[in-house]
Amino acid sequence: MDEMVTLPVLTTAPPDNDDDRYYKIAEDLFIAVSPIILIVGLVGNILTLVVMNRPSHRPSSVSIYLSTLAISDSLVLILDFINNWFKMHLDIKLLVMDESFCKFHRYFFDVVYTLSSWLIVAVSIDRFITVWFPFKAKKLCSKKTAIIVCCVLPLISLACYAHRVPGWHLDETGIEPVCNTHPKHRDFQESYGPWLSAVLYSYGPIVMLIVFNGLIVFRLRKKASKKDAMTPNDKSLSQERRITITIVVICVAFILLTLPLALFYIFQFAMGEFIEQRPTIALAETIVLILGLSNHAVNFFLYVMSSPKFRADVCSVVCCCRKSTRNQTSDDNSTDKRYNTERVSMENISATAEWLETR
Questions:
Q1: How far is CA 271 from CA 12, 266, 268, 285, 319, in A?
Q2: DSSP secondary structure string, 192-210?
Q3: Which domains does the chain have, with CATH numbers?
Q4: Which residues cross the membrane (predicted)?
Q5: Are 31 and 56 in contact (CB under 8 A)?
Q6: Residue 179 host element (H or E)
């Protein structure tokens, strides 16, 4: 597959033999699945933003993290779609139309891709503090802290990938222009860039999530075994526990969906097939990349499955929309009825006036 994602960048050309079918299967698979992931992901992320900004969620630090995550995930889905799907299905290569967009896409896609990972780490740390240090949680896990973290993380991500701006350019030396690594930076981009991206996006977050969520689960089980996690009347503790379980579910899903991608690239480097791939490897890459892309589209469904409060708020939002539509229809019908009544009244008045004139 060519340029499926920029973490890392692949430049593979399919061979002219029977193995072409593997490349065709990989391309058809991506073309079919990518729009589904985009639509489902965007709808879910928009609903997440709506629910997380309702009054019942607004005071929570978790709502800040998950709202920012929904925006970041949506940007990942859009940027991936306008590059890969447009190119593979419509033969529209946006990245070669302008060098500025070539640099922007290669740079900003990695930024938001990595930002999503570290937002999950941040909310996991928030829950770790809440579970292990409940008396300090009110101060350390406040809404203000969440806002600061969500402002600082993008800046760090932008700085980490600053080398990509001069590292890419529009290469017009061949038959067709290509958004390619700059000759002056090619050694770094091809030798170290992929590892840097993999560590920032996948390896680092996965290790931290395993550690923090392992500690969270250990603490929750320990409290449950001692029957001192909460009392039946302590609704605030019960709510905090449900939120924590939701975040753990999100983290587990992230690990399951991105770990295959991380292991795949380790395998590629070990086998020396990072640049020149066998057809079966290209098909495997497409599958793990689809899994990685799905990570940015499934969070809404994880919230619905693991959080009764979130489910109730989603139902409330949907019911409000239906009620609003019904009210609008009812108002329109009432307006029509008033109009018809007034028209009949005017006709009656006119008829009466004519009768009096004839008398």
A1: 16, 9, 5, 14, 54
A2: THHHHHHIIIIIHHHHHHH
A3: 20-306 (1.20.1070.10)
A4: 29-52, 64-86, 106-125, 146-164, 200-220, 243-267, 287-304
A5: no
A6: strand 178-181
**Can you read off the two tokens belonging to residue 353?**
């006036």
C-alpha to C-alpha distance for 257 and 295, rounded to whole angstroms: 6
**How many CB atoms are located within 10 Å of the residue 64 CB?**
26
Angle at CA of residue 94, ends 93 and 100, nearest 5° = 135
- Are residues 76 and 119 in contact, defined by beta-carbon separation less than 8 angstroms? no
Amino acid identity of residue 248, one-letter, is V
Task: Please list the helix, strand and coil fractions of the chain in percent, rounded to the nearest 5, in that order.
Answer: 80, 5, 20
- φ and ψ at residue 15, rounded to 5 degrees: -80, 160
Burial class (CB within 10 angstroms; exposed 0-12, middle 13-18, buried 19+) of 185: middle
Consecutive 10-residue averages of pLDDT for the chain (359 residues): 41 52 83 92 93 79 92 93 83 82 88 94 92 87 92 94 84 79 78 80 91 90 65 57 85 90 75 60 84 91 85 81 55 51 51 49
DSSP collapsed to 3 states, 100-112: HHHHHHHHHHHHH
Cα–Cα distance for residue pair 64/240, rounded to 1 Å? 16
Q: How far apart are CA 275 and CA 181, in angstroms?
A: 13
CA pair distance 1, 156, nearest whole angstrom: 30
Q: What is the CB neighbour count within 10 angstroms for residue 224? A: 12
User: Cα(104)–Cα(111) distance, rounded to whole angstroms?
Assistant: 10
Alpha-carbon gap, residue 65 to 103, rounded angstroms? 28
∠ at Cα 182 (176, 186), nearest 5°? 120
pLDDT at 227: 56
Using CA atoms, how far residue 329 sits from 68, 317, 326, 338, in Å, is 35, 18, 5, 14
pLDDT at 220: 84
Q: Specify the DSSP class assigned to residue 183.
A: G
Q: Are 20 and 78 in contact (CB under 8 A)?
A: no
